[in-house]
Amino acid sequence: MIELIKKVRVHPLFWLVIAAGIITGHFKEVLMVFVIVFVHEMGHSVAAYMLKWDIKKIELLPFGGAAQVEENGTKPIKEEMAIVLAGPLQHLWLWALSFALVGQPFWSESDHELFVAHNAAIVLFNLLPIYPLDGGRMVQLACLAVWPYKRAMAASLGISVGFLAVALSIMLFLPFHLNLFVILSFLALTNGLEFKQRNYRFMRFLMAKQTDRATKSIHARVSGQLPIRDALALLRRGQVQLFVIEDGGNRYTVAEKELLQAYFAEAKLHAPVRTLVPPAV
Asked: Which UniProt keywords apply (predicted)?
């Protein structure tokens, strides 16, 4: 646990919110938010630690946090979903603890109501389907469970941007709220960066696929004329893709690692997949 705490970092955006709270005389509220966010993120981090994920950094944000892990899209989807859910689940015992402390000299009924309000606001906000919020990550994992990696990432990002656009539109009709404006602006920048890095992330996924230890296999029928680059777009997370090539009335099976070898080692980006069929066949 001490190892995890040493990796905690407070994002500059959170320091801005803390400073604003102190200046405006809302230090107790800011302290409550800090505790809630810290516990929320430690829920993610402890789950990742127990599943033996390599945690690089734990960053606290006003609406939650982000645990940076060494992960290239080849870890089991179930494990990542467990890590994502571990954060929101912490809010349940936080609510129960606040309720149990009511009546103590240091915890009044008004403190409890304020704490519960912040606790509910943070968890509900985090469950919005906007990346990198927990809700956005859940949508991303759901897409990865049913679609190839490249399509799933594009679809989940599209959903994220759509809901973010709705949130920004609603904000135009509400009284100006600095914290909300800063948070939504941060989410917009994050989604923009995610869009710019989509090809880089896909390339990292393909590189990690070369040493992927997944055992579950799935077949995909493709034309022999399909370029290798397009065939790789059909690869899925947590599954080994076997390509059934239909060419001239014949069928051949080629494993995904053969395509990856041709793509990275032989630079056959545009070559048709039928070129990978052994001549003897």
From this structure: Hydrolase, Membrane, Metal-binding, Metalloprotease, Protease, Transmembrane, Transmembrane helix, Zinc
